[in-house]
């Protein structure tokens, strides 16, 4: 049966496996240089910093104040049942550039790297079981693939939400927004024609199979550069 619960409040936290490593930093630096030189249609601001690269397991609305379930979520993660935790080390890597199956690659907003390595099936089982566990504990999780109850494992490399701009280069939908009386200088999220990128970087390896060290509960909202970037981890569980 497909999960049906979705959070009704503001999304506050997410469960994820961090992938920030020296290797990721080097490969993203190379990818960024390639984009600047050969793909001016891709906003540089949309390329994610190495400190933010992760595999999302679940996004949740844990409430605030007296209604907050943060402490419970932290406890559930730290005390994750042994039947869910992998019995041995998981090693996965990242390769290529893709868009989500329901997205038009000629008007993409998000580009991600896919997982590679012999342990990907085991990681998928771990992710699915973790999502199911938090759902069964009553947490309001946001589901993107409720038809199959499977976590869509991916590592976001480019996201144009971080490259919103004010300009006069409107597409058809944005032009309609102007006619509805909205301001000319509103910020708009740019689209990327990623067809060439997907083909060109199909074999680009962002990360060779590497040991996954932990799963964490993170606060929504990226930290500033002064704070070290990335996301604030409020609880974590070391993996074998």
How would you describe this structure to a colleague?
This protein is an alpha+beta fold and 240 residues long. Helices cover 24% and strands 22% of the residues. It is built from five helices and nine strands; from the N terminus they run E-H-E-H-E-E-H-E-E-H-H-E-E-E. The radius of gyration is 19 Å and the shape is globular. The relative contact order is 0.25.
Short description:
The protein has 240 residues and is of the alpha+beta class. 24% of the residues lie in helices and 22% in strands. The two termini are 31 Å apart.
Structural class: alpha+beta
**If helices are DSSP runs of H or I spanning 4 or more residues, what is the number of helices?**
5
CATH class of one domain: Alpha Beta
The gyration radius over C-alpha positions equals 19 Å
Number of strands: 9
Percent in helix:
10-25%
Largest sheet, spatial ordering of strands: 5-2-1-8-9
* Second rung of CATH, namely the architecture of one domain: Alpha-Beta Complex
Task: Identify low-pLDDT runs.
Answer: none
CATH superfamily of one domain: Cyclic phosphodiesterase
Mean pLDDT: 87
- Briefly note the CATH topology name of one domain: Cyclic Phosphodiesterase, Chain: A
β-sheet strand percentage? 15-25%
- Main pleated sheet: 5 strands, antiparallel
User: Judging from the principal axes of the Cα atoms, what is the shape?
Assistant: globular
Q: Please write the string of helix (H) and strand (E) elements.
A: EHEHEEHEEHHEEE
List the helices and strands and how they pair.
Layout: E1 13-18, H1 22-38, E2 54-60, H2 70-78, E3 91-98, E4 110-116, H3 120-136, E5 141-142, E6 155-159, H4 172-179, H5 195-200, E7 205-211, E8 214-219, E9 233-238
Antiparallel strand pairs: 1-2, 1-8, 2-5, 3-4, 3-7, 4-6, 8-9
């Amino acid at each position: 049966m497909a999960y049906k619960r979705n959070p009704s409040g503001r999304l506050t936290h997410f469960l994820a496996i961090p992938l920030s490593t020296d290797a990721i930093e080097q490969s993203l630096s190379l990818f960024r240089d390639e984009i600047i030189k050969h793909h001016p249609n891709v906003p540089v601001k949309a390329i994610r910093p190495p400190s933010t690269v992760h595999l999302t397991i679940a996004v949740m609305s844990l409430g605030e104040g007296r209604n907050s379930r943060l402490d419970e979520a932290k406890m559930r993660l730290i005390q994750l049942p042994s039947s869910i935790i992998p019995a041995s080390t998981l090693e996965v890597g990242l390769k290529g550039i893709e868009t989500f199956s329901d997205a038009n690659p000629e008007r993409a907003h998000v580009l991600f790297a896919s997982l590679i390595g012999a342990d990907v099936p085991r990681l998928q089982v771990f992710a699915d079981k973790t999502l199911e566990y938090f759902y069964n504990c009553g947490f309001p999780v946001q589901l993107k693939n409720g038809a199959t109850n499977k976590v869509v494992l991916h590592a976001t490399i480019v996201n144009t939400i971080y490259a919103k701009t004010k300009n006069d280069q409107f597409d058809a939908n944005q032009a309609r927004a102007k006619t509805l009386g909205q301001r000319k200088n509103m910020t708009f999220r740019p689209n990327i024609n990623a067809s060439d990128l997907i083909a060109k970087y199909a074999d680009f390896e962002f990360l060779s199979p590497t040991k996954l060290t932990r799963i964490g509960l993170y606060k929504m909202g990226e930290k500033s550069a002064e704070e070290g970037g990335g996301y604030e981890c409020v609880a974590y569980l070391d993996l074998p």
